[in-house]
Design goal:
SH3 type barrels, signal
């Protein structure tokens, strides 16, 4: 009987350790984006807490500043903080234009031809960032934008 209990204990320990390895947590802070057409920010990490904001902006970038189980404390582009369930978030790198107008250029250079002009508040997906420039795709309009003109998953 003791052997059976010892074996059961070892199996349980291995299962718990296996789950810990299978679900690593990211180092906070990290970038995420809203993955749903509607997402509620709550004042605490549970459905029991009231909503403080309802976001209706898929791909809006947020900064995850704390993790508690399946809940993430996030900060939005305006600095508002609250809790969202992990299922409302995505790892897709996105950004929002903070400048009044941000030219999306043909290449990563101030002298490059402007292909499009994104106004403040435009949200797009990022594919890469380096040297102070990011490639931003805002609903099919793609170009290089200065990293200082956007807020989001900019490295």
């Amino acid at each position: 009987m003791k052997g059976y209990l010892l074996a059961a204990s070892m199996v349980a320990t291995l299962m718990v350790a296996g789950n810990a390895v299978a679900a690593p947590t990211k180092q906070v802070p990290y970038w995420a984006s809203i993955s749903q057409d509607e997402a509620r920010m709550r004042v605490g990490p549970s459905l029991d807490y009231p909503s403080s904001w309802i976001y209706r902006r898929r791909d809006l970038p947020v900064k995850v500043v704390q993790v508690l189980g399946q809940w993430r404390k996030v900060e939005d582009p305006d600095g508002t903080q609250g809790w969202m369930h992990v299922r409302l978030l995505s790892d897709t790198p996105t950004a929002i234009v903070r400048a009044t107008v941000a030219p999306l250029r043909e290449s990563a250079s101030d002298g490059a031809r402007a292909l499009y002009r994104a106004e403040k508040g435009v949200v797009g997906r990022l594919s890469s960032c380096s040297g102070g420039w990011c490639v931003l795709d805002a609903h099919g309009q793609r170009g290089f934008v200065k990293a200082g003109d956007i807020w989001g998953a900019v490295e």
